[in-house]
Write a structure and sequence with these properties.
The complex is a heterodimer of chains A (511) and B (376). Chain A is α/β, with parallel strands linked by helices and 511 residues long. Chain A is 32% helix and 26% strand. Chain A has three domains: 9-242, P-loop containing nucleotide triphosphate hydrolases (Rossmann fold); 247-338 and 424-511, Rossmann fold; 354-423, no CATH class. A six-stranded mixed beta sheet of chain A has the order 6-7-8-3-9-10, with helices on both faces. Chain A has a six-stranded mixed beta sheet with strand order 16-19-20-13-21-22, sandwiched between helices. The longest helix of chain A has 16 residues, at 178-193. The two termini of chain A are 42 Å apart. Chain B has a domain at 66-301. Chain B has helices at 16-40, 45-57, 60-85, 93-111, 117-146, 150-171, 206-223, 225-235, 237-242, 247-274, 279-282, 286-296, 304-321, 329-350; strands spanning 7-10, 198-200, 203-204, 351-354. Chain B has a two-stranded antiparallel sheet with strand order 1-4. A two-stranded antiparallel sheet of chain B has the order 2-3. In chain B, helix 1 (16-40) packs antiparallel against helix 14 and helix 3 (60-85) runs antiparallel to helix 10 (247-274). Chain B is globular. Chains A and B meet through strand 4, helix 10, helix 11 and strand 18 of A and strand 1, helix 8 and helix 9 of B.
């Protein structure tokens, strides 16, 4: 690409093993990182990318294998030691103190930070670094006031402030609009040009193609191969990543939908801090239609879902389901009205982590037969229905008495979606239904959604994954700061157009 | 090489062998450590333990006394366990127990001799439950609706309850105080019709009532629709809200039920071996020991019964140690050691330790959770 990386190895990993719960997340992994290169680490979710990075960053220690840093064997005991040697990582979940300012976060854990904080100096350094790398930031702002993209900037600048030689970015583009992603790529190239090495973790082929010098592909915890990006063709990389040729299911075009099933008018929902998070949204969903809501996380998606399912009382507006006003109904009344909801956080909200799969599958239906007779539970119904659903929806790893939290992400999501579908919903509200799933599970969950669509269910798909939105939605709405800033049929939607709308830079008149 | 000697990792499905074996091993370990301690103080631990075993189970009278001691512990254990299952940290079992005893004895004295036993005994026990629930409500209502910390409120209410009982007997001429005794103040004996008949030496039918109540609690939580909702709330309140369950009301009800169970224990104790509001018999920390019982039983409502009998045996064995020149406090030390080992044992129930080069056996292998839990 722009500049040929030097041949000096910054980091070398040989035969690294790391197991969790008796399953190998990294299995005899070899990895070589040259100085001054952007090195992409490509693989599906659960392929072991994050584990590998966490070993480099000193968060985990390998069960076996060697780590060489600038030619010398090292064992980082903790992230602090790694950082002192010049290896820093930006995790998917940021590690910033949200009540402190940007500058104070810079100072945290910095070896030069003494008893007193020289705010002025840090402010100056932060501002200069921001300008240099085209990542402008206000050093006095508190973290909670910043958007996700800005927080990521703080994380990166914090590591540059520590003058790291190796910068690990774990799925950095997942929280960014396409345009913000482009800006980040520019910064990554700039850092490489200075002789720093950047490890870029992703499962998106086009990004890897665009920004990296070399690619290492991981699959099921093993290294499949390493190639120079210029020599690699996208289809070849895809096959290395997935292990087979794979086409994810997409919707077929439908001309006529049924009657309006869910009608939302001028909906306002308060946010956590009292301010309105949803500020006057209106849309209709017809039978058999999938409406996609695109937007960067934190623009009112959670509150919209809460407002629609009764978890938070709307402050104004109306929600009408199949002719009945359900605006102020309780959660239970929403469930009884056949409204299904798949929340974003599977173990945090959708499932009771400590209960068994059978019990979780009965989480909403337990109030009536066959699960209960009067006030008594019917144990055999839990077992029989559980077996049937587990079988029908191909939920794997289930054993009697096993808490559901021990299932893998894909199986958790299949169980969650299966339960909602078993309630025979008229309306299905889904938040990021395939987030974090491997390709196989993504395929299964998408098929379930499309099957429900064919059955005439009105579906609201709230997601940050543009591929998913484009593949499943009939119509797309873009949400920005709690308002709909654009609306289009899926056929007219492109990632670029959605990205511009998501960043709030353009407002199109609602169709 | 950065090879590690041992790997600690969570177990998936915990087999019943482990679930049962670890607590048993914990108790044995506690006895061994306490034995070393006894040995260092110049006593033969074997002699002490055989003396204790003999006192607790060696004679019909001993068994009877052990079960008498176990009766309130079953109920205070259940009281603690059902609250803890819901992550309600009701450590006010002590105070709720005392209030149960106060209300139960008060009702018995107020009703007097006229009421037949068949009505009187249930009334007294239920009154005890109400007393306990009422005392719990003082902490429960602010906890549920205002978010106060129940650990602090229930703990403080214990001292108030104790002071109230002492006031009723020592500080005033209340109806609870025996007017006929002028030397050292005592509780007024409750009517004979309120006393549960003795069946085996001093042991009353109260032990069966306690066991029945524990089984009922187990049934309620494990086998009913209401109990299922309670278990969901206890596992994750966000999930419960999502499933349309009224979380605040469930927590409140369970908190009051927990108080009621401690109160039942107070009622049973008064209607059983004590027969009066007697501070010396009631201020033994039975509510606190209930917490140990619940913890050792892993909050399992049926396992509480044998654990309470073990703890009752220890309590019962204490005084006999003085005969061989060992302080009664040895029992307190043993109970403390058992609790510490039981809590530490939890770790081994939930985790296993293995060598990295030895793969875990096929049977216990579980699917990993490689996905990070995202914030809500």
């Amino acid at each position: 690409m722009t500049q040929a990386p030097t041949d000096t190895l910054a980091v070398e990993l040989c035969g690294v093993d790391k197991s969790f719960y008796g399953v190998k997340a990294n299995d005899n992994v070899d990895f070589k990182l040259a100085q001054g290169e952007v090195h992409a680490l490509l693989g599906e979710n659960g392929a072991g990318k994050s584990t590998l990075c966490s070993i480099l960053a000193g968060l985990y220690r390998p069960d076996a294998g060697d780590v060489f840093f600038e030619g010398e064997e090292v064992t980082f005991k903790n992230p602090k030691e790694a950082l002192a040697s010049g290896v820093g990582m930006v995790y998917q979940h940021f590690r910033l103190v949200s009540n402190l300012t940007v500058a104070e976060n810079f100072a945290l854990g910095h070896p030069d930070t003494g008893v007193r904080l020289n705010q002025k100096e840090i402010h100056k350094a932060a501002r200069e670094l921001g300008e240099k790398y085209d990542l402008p930031i206000d050093p006095a702002a508190r973290i909670w006031q910043l958007s996700v993209g800005e927080q990521q900037r703080v994380e990166i600048l914090k590591l540059l402030y520590r003058n790291v030689k190796i910068l690990i970015l774990d799925e950095p583009t997942a929280v960014l609009t396409p345009q913000e992603g482009q800006a980040l790529f520019k910064t990554m190239r700039q850092m490489a040009a200075e002789g720093r090495s950047v490890i870029f973790v992703s499962h998106k082929l086009d990004e890897v193609k665009q920004v990296s010098d070399r690619v290492t592909v991981l699959r099921n915890g093993k290294t499949v191969g390493g190639v120079a990006t210029a020599d690699a063709d996208t289809r070849e990389l895809a096959r290395m990543m997935v292990g087979r040729d794979l086409v994810l299911p997409t919707r077929d075009t439908v001309e006529d939908f049924g009657d309006v099933m869910l009608s939302v008018k001028d909906l306002h929902v308060p946010g956590d801090r009292g301010l309105e998070a949803v500020r006057g949204m209106s849309f209709d969903i017809r039978e058999g239609e999938v409406i996609g809501i695109a937007g960067v996380s934190g623009n009112g998606q959670r509150e919209l879902a809460y407002g629609l399912v009764g978890l938070r009382k709307p402050s104004a507006g109306s929600v009408v389901l199949d002719g009945a006003d359900i605006t102020n109904n309780t959660v239970l009344e929403h469930i009884d009205a056949h409204q299904g909801y798949v929340p974003q956080s599977r173990l945090g909200m959708g499932l009771a982590p400590g209960l068994t799969t059978d019990e979780n599958l009965a989480l909403k239906a337990y109030r009536s037969p066959p699960y209960s007779k009067g006030r008594r539970l019917v144990a055999s119904a839990f077992r029989d229905e559980g077996d049937r659903i587990v079988d029908e929806y191909d939920i794997r790893g289930v054993r009697p008495g096993l808490p559901i939290r021990l299932l893998s992400g894909g199986n958790l999501q299949k169980a969650l979606v299966a339960r909602e579908i078993e309630l025979e919903p008229k309306v299905l509200i889904l938040r990021s239904p395939t987030r974090g799933l491997d390709v196989g599970a993504t395929e299964q969950v998408r098929n379930l959604i499309l099957k429900e669509r064919a059955r005439g269910v009105a579906t609201l798909l709230i997601s940050e994954d543009l591929d998913e939105l484009l593949a499943l939605s009939d119509r797309l709405l873009v949400i920005f700061e709690g308002e709909i800033v654009g609306e289009m049929p899926a056929e007219e939607a492109t990632a670029e157009r959605l990205g511009l709308l998501m960043s709030g830079q353009v407002e199109e008149a609602s169709a | 090489m950065t090879k590690r000697r041992f790997i600690v990792e969570p177990r998936g499905l915990v087999s019943w062998k482990v679930r049962l074996g670890v607590p048993v091993a914990s108790v044995l370990a506690a006895f061994i450590v306490a034995g070393i301690f006894l040995f260092l103080t110049g006593v033969n631990p074997i002699e002490v333990y055989s003396e204790m075993l003999d006192a607790a189970f060696g004679s019909p009278r001993g068994i009877s006394e052990t079960l008498i001691s176990a009766t309130p512990l079953i109920l205070t254990g259940v009281a603690a366990a059902i609250a803890f299952k819901m992550l309600v940290w009701n450590i006010g079992g002590e105070g709720q127990f005392i209030l149960g005893a106060i209300v139960a004895s008060g009702v018995a004295i107020w009703l007097g001799d006229g009421v037949p036993s068949i009505l009187m005994i249930p009334i007294v026990i239920v009154a005890g439950g109400l007393g306990g629930a009422m005392w719990a409500s003082i902490a429960a209502i602010p906890r549920v609706y205002l978010g106060t910390n129940e650990i602090i409120t229930t703990l403080m209410l214990n001292f108030i309850a104790l002071a109230l009982m002492n006031f009723l007997i020592f500080g005033s001429s209340s109806p609870w105080r025996d007017p006929e005794v002028s030397t050292f103040p005592q509780g007024r004996p409750i009517p004979e019709s309120a006393r549960i008949p003795e069946i085996f030496f001093r042991l009353t039918g109260g032990i069966f009532i306690a066991i029945a109540l524990a089984v009922f609690a187990w049934y309620l939580i494990g086998k009913t629709r209401w109990g299922f909702a309670v278990r969901i709330v206890g596992d994750s309140s966000d999930t419960a809200r999502y499933a349309g369950i009224g979380v605040a009301r469930k927590i409140l009800t369970v908190f009051l039920l927990s108080g009621a169970y401690a109160g039942f224990a107070g009622g049973l104790f008064v209607a059983g071996p004590v027969g009066a509001l007697d501070p010396r018999s009631l201020d033994l920390g039975l509510g606190f020991t209930g917490i140990i019982v619940a913890a050792l039983a892993g909050l399992h409502l049926i396992a509480i019964i044998p654990v309470a009998i073990l703890m009752g045996a220890l309590n019962n064995a204490g005084p006999s140690l003085q005969a061989i020149g060992v302080p009664t406090a040895t029992v307190t030390m043993l109970q403390g050691a058992i609790l510490i080992f039981a809590v530490a044992g939890e770790f081994f129930i939930n985790n296993r330790i293995r060598r990295p080069d030895i793969e875990p056996d096929e049977e216990s292998e579980v699917t990993p959770v490689l996905e990070e839990v995202e914030p809500a």
